[in-house]
């Protein structure tokens, strides 16, 4: 070998050699020097297990001189890794411009960010440029592979600074997910129509409304549409996560107004479901009005008791007999679910004593004394009450108490008024007596005329003369 053609290599020098021999762990290169150069497997590619099948004789390999010894034994060691590292840094620098997404493995989890490994370089990824969801679970990220962008790559001597980011990646992912969600929401909304019945989950509760989610769409359930009854606090009847079935009562653009109560029977319908006309019900006096009373039969269910239905007795005043909240039993005489009206009657559960009364004006009947006052007698005839005034009870002067007592039976009294509509029954004992006297007198006249020609003048002549 001509010494003019011999390369005296130095450490750090870049050299290219031709492969002249290949073993599992080492290749030998002709570098035109005093001896061949060696390159071990871990200085070629740390991921390889053997040179066999990867490098062959005649291949050209470039490396950096790591060690030179021209004394015995002569030795030249070169490595391909420094060149690869340099090439890799150049690739990393280009990534700053291209914004290409690459994959890097998490090596460390530090206070301000993650340290990742990419092409044998450390990449710093600050938490400010990391997804919020990943930050929440950062302790689980070690050895995980993340997709990142390289946003900075600089070298200062032996030191390099490489910064990674996921901001554009997760923002793009969020945007894509949002757009997909909006598209899905649009498609689902197109399928929903007013009147549809849907099942969803309570996602949020405000003071006056709850938000119900159905997959990608959300509807508004106002407090007034939850129940037919008044609700003071919505969160006392609904809970987040609760499954509810609702009816769409209005669709306007992307907005859905929902109702739970539209699927429920009204308080009137629920109350009257097992009721019929003629049923007896119990309620409480809710309000008194000039024409009757409002009776509360159940929560938000009220009926009207008209004053005409207080009693068969037209003189009976129920207003004076009851107070607000008093319990009362009545009968349903009419009901209308659609108009939410219930007509009630108290007299319908009472027996009408006048139904069986047969006496009429002019009839003579017996009577039982119920009460005695200085003005009249209260008596009972065929189950109804009647009155006999003092002037119709006795002839002449005297008090009623002197002639009558409670429980006495009057054998004969003539009916002078009997009106079932006004419940008026008036009788007279005096008229019976007068009638009897008159009949007796008339009978006397008839008997006397049979004996001769005696006249009234003959009978009362002396008195007339006086």
Cα-to-Cα separation, first versus last residue: 202 Å
Determine the number of helices (DSSP H or I, runs of at least 4 residues): 8
Computed CA radius of gyration, to the nearest angstrom: 58 Å
Number of beta-strand segments:
25
Strand content: 35-45%
The order of strands across the largest sheet is 1-2-3-5-4
Shape: rod-shaped
Question: What's the average pLDDT?
Answer: 89
User: Structural class, from helix and strand content?
Assistant: alpha+beta
Topology:
Blueprint: E1 14-22, E2 26-30, E3 37-40, E4 60-69, E5 75-79, H1 81-98, E6 102-109, E7 113-118, E8 121-126, H2 132-136, E9 145-156, E10 159-165, H3 167-191, E11 197-205, E12 209-214, E13 217-222, E14 243-252, E15 255-259, H4 267-272, E16 280-289, E17 292-298, E18 301-306, E19 327-336, E20 341-345, E21 364-372, E22 376-381, E23 384-389, H5 390-393, H6 400-403, E24 409-419, E25 424-428, H7 430-451, H8 456-465
Parallel strand pairs: 3-5, 13-15, 18-20
Antiparallel strand pairs: 1-2, 1-4, 2-3, 4-5, 6-7, 6-9, 7-8, 9-10, 11-12, 11-14, 12-13, 14-15, 16-17, 16-19, 17-18, 19-20, 21-22, 21-24, 22-23, 24-25
């Amino acid at each position: 070998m001509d010494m003019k053609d011999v390369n005296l290599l130095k450490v750090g020098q870049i050299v290219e050699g031709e492969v002249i021999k290949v073993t599992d762990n080492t290749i030998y290169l002709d570098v035109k020097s005093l001896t061949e150069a060696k390159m071990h497997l871990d200085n070629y590619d740390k991921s390889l297990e053997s040179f066999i099948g990867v490098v062959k004789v005649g291949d050209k390999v470039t490396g950096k001189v790591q060690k030179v010894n021209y004394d015995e034994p002569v030795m030249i060691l070169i490595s391909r890794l420094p060149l690869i590292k340099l090439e890799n840094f150049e690739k990393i620098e280009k990534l700053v411009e291209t914004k290409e997404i690459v994959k890097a493995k998490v090596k460390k989890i530090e206070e301000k960010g993650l340290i990742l490994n990419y092409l044998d370089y450390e990449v710093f990824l600050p938490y400010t440029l990391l997804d919020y969801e990943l930050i929440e679970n950062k302790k689980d990220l070690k050895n995980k592979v993340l997709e990142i962008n390289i946003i900075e790559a600089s070298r200062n001597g032996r030191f390099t600074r490489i910064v990674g980011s996921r901001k554009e990646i997760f923002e793009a992912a969020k945007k894509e997910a949002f757009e997909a969600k909006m598209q899905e929401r649009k498609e689902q909304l197109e399928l929903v129509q007013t009147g549809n019945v849907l099942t969803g989950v309570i996602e949020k509760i405000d003071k006056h409304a709850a938000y119900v989610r159905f997959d990608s769409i959300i509807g508004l359930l106002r407090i007034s549409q939850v129940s037919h009854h008044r609700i003071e606090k919505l969160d006392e009847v609904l809970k987040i996560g609760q499954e509810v079935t609702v009816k769409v009562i209005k669709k306007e653009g992307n907005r859905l107004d929902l109702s739970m109560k539209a699927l429920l029977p009204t308080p009137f319908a629920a109350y009257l479901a097992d009721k019929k006309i003629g049923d007896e019900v119990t309620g409480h006096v809710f309000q008194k009005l000039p024409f009757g009373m409002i009776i509360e039969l159940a929560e938000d269910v009220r009926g009207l008791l008209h004053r005409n239905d207080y009693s068969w007795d037209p003189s009976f005043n129920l207003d004076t007999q009851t107070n607000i909240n008093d319990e009362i039993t009545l009968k349903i005489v009419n009901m209308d679910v659609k108009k939410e009206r219930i007509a009630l009657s108290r007299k319908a559960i009472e027996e009408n004593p006048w139904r069986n009364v047969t006496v009429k004006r002019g009839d003579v009947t017996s009577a039982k004394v119920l009460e005695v006052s200085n003005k009249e007698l209260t008596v009972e005839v065929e189950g109804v009450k009647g009155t006999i005034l003092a002037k119709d009870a006795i002839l002449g002067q005297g008090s009623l108490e002197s002639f009558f007592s409670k429980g006495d039976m009057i054998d004969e009294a003539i009916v002078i008024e009997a009106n079932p509509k006004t419940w008026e029954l008036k009788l007279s004992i005096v008229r019976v007596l007068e009638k009897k006297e008159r009949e007796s007198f008339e009978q006397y006249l008839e008997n006397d005329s049979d004996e001769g020609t005696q006249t009234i003048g003959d009978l009362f002549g002396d008195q007339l003369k006086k």
